[in-house]
Amino acid sequence: MDRGPGTTAALAVAGGAVFGATTSLVNALSSPYGQLALTDGPLRRLAVVASLLLDAGWAWAALAVAGGWLAGGVRRGALTGSLALLGAVPAYYVTDAAGRGEELSG
Fold first, then answer.
1. Transmembrane ranges (predicted)?
2. Single pTM value for the model
3. HSE of 29 in the Cβ direction (CA atoms, 13 Å)?
4. CA–CA gap between residue 17 and residue 90 (Å, rounded)
5. Any domain includes 20
6. pLDDT digits (tens, 9 = 90+) for 61-97
């Protein structure tokens, strides 16, 4: 199935948003200080490892590379990778704020 550029861009933004929200949620589960913190046990240890992996810079870079690979071609790939990150960053911070019960305004 051949995807048009609009579909590819939408998939990149949506995939980035899922990645960003998942990263924030895993951080909240692995932190002993958050409202969503897991109690000590194997699930919390798994969440800590997942948090360390998802928070690494290479994981965010891999998101952009995967978005670029999805588009194919150098220019479209660069744009699509950037769109994936543009979806991930706001989703990360919105999920972070929601998890802490903070408002997003000023």
1. 52-71, 78-95
2. 0.88
3. 19
4. 8
5. yes
6. 999 999 888 888 899 999 999 999 999 999 999 999 9
